């Protein structure tokens, strides 16, 4: 094969791959923007706000804010809940803690079964509603957190795609420069080249 033909194929292939990577990077960045925007908007509509700094300063076992919550929630004191990271912290280190302190560990299936077994127990029936609401909100917050993670992955993948596109574009330019310096009759593997003789044998 002519060396110029070989260089042309590689260089054009690099251009095609560069375009593909740029398109992929653009789509991934769009995915990140979409996911991030949806998570923010959906969480903002819930109008959930973290407890105040004063509440965290008075953290005590058995109260709204327990000492174990401080490492996860104190940094968000007084802030509106609008990000995936905040949603995960609120779900796993605030709602889950309070659910675990309820009868039967706040597990909806257990509380519901106990209520069905004692249909006249009004207190237990109220517990079922509280656990259901808490469990549902926790699930929705964790779902928002999962979507925010997908967005972060898309962002990283998009940046990698653009970086690779830049590298491929540079290699393609080098390929075309080398193509211009290559003689018309130059072969990739000459008849005396050891590799060609090995292939021929």
In brief, what are we looking at here?
The chain has about 200 residues and is mostly helical. It has helices at about 5-45, 55, 70-75, 85-100, 110-115, 120-180, 195-200.
Structural class, please?
mainly alpha
Number of domains in the coordinates?
A: 1
Radius of gyration: 30 Å
Indicate the mean pLDDT.
87
Low-confidence sequence ranges? none
The outline comes out as elongated
Give helix % range. over 70%
Number of strands: 0
Taken as a percent bin, the fraction of beta residues is: under 5%
**CA(first)-CA(last) distance:** 18 Å
The DSSP helix count reads 7
In N-to-C order, the SSE pattern is HHHHHHH
- What kind of sheet is the major sheet? none
Walk me through the structure:
α1 (3-46) runs antiparallel to α6 (122-181) and α4 packs antiparallel against α6 (122-181). The mean pLDDT is 87. The protein has one domain (3-200). The chain contains seven helices and no strands. It is elongated, with a radius of gyration of 30 Å. By secondary structure, it is an all-alpha fold. The longest helix has 60 residues, at 122-181. It starts with a helix and ends with a helix.
